[in-house]
Amino acid sequence: MGTPFSTIKIISSDLLKQFKDNAEIKKDIELLVSQIERCSEILKRLTLNPIIEDDFIDRDLSIADYVSEIVKSFQETSKKIFVVNFDQNSNSLDITKSIEIVYGLRNFIGNANKFSKNKVFINVKSDSNNTEIIIEDDGEGYPKDVLSKIGEPYIKSFRSSTRSKSGLGLGIFIGKTLLEKNYANILCRNSKTRSGAEVSIKWKNKDLLSL
Asked: Which of 28, 42, 47, 144 has the maximal Cβ count within 10 Å?
């Protein structure tokens, strides 16, 4: 992925020069460049020295442990309230440590933190066959004009309240890609019980054990 990122960055720099007098296009290209740089940094962390930032991954963990540690890291800097429910987590399994799962969950929980008004709701459920994490927030939800495109790397809503925060959808794209690489099934939609967005991340237990 490093080579495509470098190519996009070079082309973007050339486009910036070409459209330097067009404020709106220039703004979009600058955003594209910043997101590519963000992707490059994530790639470096994943491939070079992933344990530095996430040094709690020093043993096999359960999904509940993953969620607890990631939420704890957000609570240190966020003013939002995190409501985490483990009541339906009846079959907690220790799984092989996975930096992809950490970054994938962190991206989705981070999105909920970013777009929520006050609260982020996380429900961890498991039985003898499946394990599921449901992440919801009390924000405005996914805009209707991008809902069908959630998970694609370049999306932008026309909703004014969302444009300033929406970026290019790369956070969701990266999180989805990393988790699907680890056998997760991802469903993004607007919550039926809250005002905001909902993400369901679901594994078959046998797939978690084969990581």
From this structure: 42
CB-based contact 16:33 (threshold 8 Å): yes
The pLDDT tens digits for 119-162 are 999 999 999 999 999 999 999 998 887 777 777 765 565 555 55
Six-digit token string for 199: 């993400």
Give the architecture (CATH level 2) of 56-208.
2-Layer Sandwich (3.30)
Yes or no: say if 169 and 152 are a contact pair by the CB < 8 Å rule: yes
CB 176 within 8 A of CB 186: yes
In tens, the pLDDT along 100-116 reads: 888 899 999 999 999 99
Question: Phi/psi at 203 (nearest 5 deg)?
Answer: -125, 150
The runs of H, that is alpha helices, within 48-98 are 63-75
Domain extents in the chain: 1-48, 56-208
